[in-house]
Write a structure and sequence with these properties.
Chain lengths: 294, 263
């Protein structure tokens, strides 16, 4: 990559980041000022404006933590703790990541399977599609606790229930994307197969599958992000054992706002990482399939 | 010319009616035609005259609703199943994820040729369309004319005696088209295939064909069949000879008789 294009890509992103941080600081001041003013009045403390601003940025349980507080928390809990420690964000991220990946894998496979069925059997197209769409209109927050509780009743706990919630969220984009992908070959390409008297299996493997690959990766990008959301939501009702979700829940429970924000950011970093990985794999596959370099 | 070559395509009172929401559409009606081995037959006419539909009936991509048709003495379906023709579409329809040689190999893979046999045939057919050395390229790396040549190579790869071509050069500019027409004639002379060629260009039809079938729309029918008096050896300059212009004039007359110029 040329340094030129790198700068072109990074500068706009950095500009927005700086803007967000600036707005965040201003917001943090206004959100935390009332409490600080109250505290100062009771303690009979008078301070200069600068001192006062400093104090709004250094509260232990602020309404809105300042960016540097979150950054510090994030840094400490990521790099300064043993990864096996219950306070390590790496540990919690790993717990969430493993159920995300497990759920994503199952969801992708399920989605592909459903799409293959729908494309080949008209009856499935009519009967299954409305149910698939209906399944996604149910709020995941309502389903998640039931899945966890029901499975716990039959002694299935730990990774699998959470992964199933991820599966539930991630199979949908893959199924819809793959139906579109498997149907993407143009009539002329299907006619061509017919002139060769190709079997349905040959048409499937030599035409429909390769034609659907770009659709698969696009939907997998959506699916992996949905899987992460599913895993985090799945961790909320597990009694806060481990994972980004439990970290969020515990933070909310004990008003550890800095912890909440740090966990949130850890979650977004994880999401960005996962989507990027899928994107890189997509590009490698595209290149090996003769894709025109962008 | 003492012995009549065997018939390859034979249509008797052939008709095809599409049932649409606006009532029946007579795409073909009462078509009688005999294509003999080694013929180069062009089908010319305005859009909607059924020339492509006729080609698709031969290929068993559409079913006739009236009359009879045989291809190599079989029904079109049997002919398709015994892979007796190669079809070249309006667009190259190359698979973008396959290299040129893999695209040519596609029908060979489907028909179960061995890898060694495939390699041999790929080399031979790519040479036939002057694309030797381009086998490892992907379709997007080739010009439109080269892509269409690759699709002709793909249709030739499995040695069908009949080549059905549906406006293969319609999307190309005239300079490329002239060049490909000359190449196609050479290829036809070398391979001795029977070719059915759909076009809407009068010079192209006259330059290429041994026989020109003039068609007209509503309902799609044959209005004239013109035997070409041009020699088999045809340099591009032949298109300025009085003989060539005479045939072109007859084609134009045939199109006019079919009211093709109205509206």
């Amino acid at each position: 990559m040329k340094p030129d294009s790198l700068t072109q890509r990074i500068v706009p992103v950095l500009t927005i980041l700086i803007l967000i941080v600036a707005v965040w600081y201003v917001a943090a001041y206004f959100m935390n000022a009332p409490f600080q003013r109250d505290l100062d009045r009771r303690g009979n403390v008078t301070s200069t404006t600068m001192e006062f601003i400093g104090k709004t940025m250094a509260q232990p349980k602020p309404v809105l933590p300042a960016p540097h507080q979150v950054a510090q928390n994030l840094f400490e809990n990521t790099f300064l703790r043993r990864v096996t420690s219950n306070r390590s964000l790496v540990y919690h991220a790993w717990v969430t990541l493993s159920s995300t990946v497990a759920g994503f894998t199952m969801g992708t496979l399920l989605g592909i399977l459903i799409a293959v069925g729908i494309v080949h059997l008209k009856a499935l197209d009519r009967s299954l599609m409305p149910w698939i769409i209906a399944s996604q209109t149910i709020p995941i927050l309502a389903i998640a606790p039931m899945v966890i509780v029901v499975l716990a009743a039959v002694n299935i706990t730990g990774l699998l229930p959470k992964a199933l919630i991820s599966t539930y969220l991630s199979f949908f984009p893959v199924a819809v994307g793959m139906v579109k992908g498997l149907r993407s070959p143009e009539l002329i390409q299907l006619d061509l197969m017919r002139t060769y008297n190709a079997s349905a299996a040959q048409t499937f493997w030599k035409l429909r599958v390769p034609a659907s690959i770009p659709f698969l990766f696009t939907s997998m990008k959506v699916a992996i992000a949905a899987s992460l959301v599913g895993a985090i939501v799945g961790e909320l009702p597990t009694g806060a054992v481990a994972g980004i979700g439990s970290k969020l829940l515990a933070g909310a429970y004990y008003s550890q706002t800095i912890d909440i924000w740090a966990a949130l950011i850890a979650g977004s970093v994880l999401a960005a990482l996962l989507v990027t990985i899928v994107g890189i794999v997509a590009r490698i596959v595209d290149r090996s399939m003769g894709g025109r370099p962008a | 010319m003492s012995v009549t070559p065997p018939s390859v395509v034979s249509a008797r009172k052939l008709g095809l009616t599409f049932q649409t929401g606006d009532g029946p559409v007579h795409a073909l009606s009462n078509v009688d035609l005999e294509v003999r081995k080694g013929d180069f037959v062009s089908f010319i006419g305005p859009s909607g005259c059924g020339k492509t539909t006729f080609l698709r009936v031969i290929a068993d991509l559409e079913k006739n609703t009236d009359g009879e048709i045989t291809v190599n003495g079989m029904t079109p379906e049997e002919a398709r199943k015994s892979r007796s023709y190669g079809y070249v579409f309006q667009a190259p329809a190359l698979y973008p994820w396959r290299t040129i040689e893999k695209n040519v190999a596609l029908p060979l893979e489907i028909m179960g040729h061995s890898a060694a046999e495939r390699a041999k045939r790929i080399e031979r057919t790519l040479d036939l369309v002057n694309l030797s050395g381009f086998g490892k390229k992907y379709p997007w790396q080739l010009s439109g004319g080269m892509q269409q040549r690759a699709s002709i190579a793909r249709a030739l790869a499995f040695d069908a005696d009949l080549l059905l071509m549906d406006e293969p050069f319609g999307a190309l500019d005239e300079i490329v088209r002239d060049h490909l027409n000359a190449q196609l004639l050479k290829l036809w002379a070398r391979t001795e295939k029977t070719i059915c060629f759909v076009t809407h260009s009068i010079p192209e039809a006259v330059y290429l064909s041994t026989r020109i079938v003039v068609m007209s729309p509503r309902p799609g029918r044959v209005t004239d069949v013109i035997e070409s008096t041009l020699p088999k050896e045809r340099p591009l300059e032949i298109r300025e000879t009085p003989e060539f212009l005479e045939i072109a004039h007859r084609v134009r007359e045939g199109l006019r008789a079919g009211h093709s110029y109205e509206e």
